[in-house]
Write a structure and sequence with these properties.
Blueprint (H helix, E strand, L loop, with lengths): L3 E7 L4 E10 L4 H8 L8 E12 L1 H16 L4 E6 L1 H9 L9 E3 L1
Parallel strand pairs: 2-3, 3-4, 4-5
Antiparallel strand pairs: 1-2
């Protein structure tokens, strides 16, 4: 069964590196919001590795946009790395790339 998880890779100042794992879809919306919410408290910059994200829908995109908005308000950044091209394509179709300034694909 597919799931969603967040793993902290590095939390050295002034940045935290996370890995998003699994499916960022409505099926896991409670997990997405519960696991991502602690990182919306702006205390440092974030780098998020999405290499193992298998799927994203509007629920996952909304969580990513909310995270970026919260950190931007506090003069911090969020950077998404290793985003599969199929996920970038889906995000373009959803119009999400306009709201995610730091989306980087392989």
């Amino acid at each position: 069964m597919e799931t969603f998880a967040v793993r902290e890779i590095d939390s050295s100042e002034p940045q935290t590196s996370l890995e998003f794992l699994g499916s960022m879809t409505i099926h896991f919306s409670e997990d997405i919001h519960r696991l991502v919410l602690p990182y919306t408290t702006p205390s440092r910059d974030l780098t998020i590795d999405m290499a193992t994200v298998t799927d994203v829908d509007t629920c996952g995109v909304q969580a990513m946009i909310a995270l970026e908005k919260q950190l931007t308000k506090a003069n911090h950044t969020v950077r998404y790395v290793n985003v599969d091209t199929s996920i970038v394509t889906k995000m373009k179709l959803l119009g999400a790339t306009d709201h995610l300034s730091s989306l980087a694909s392989d």
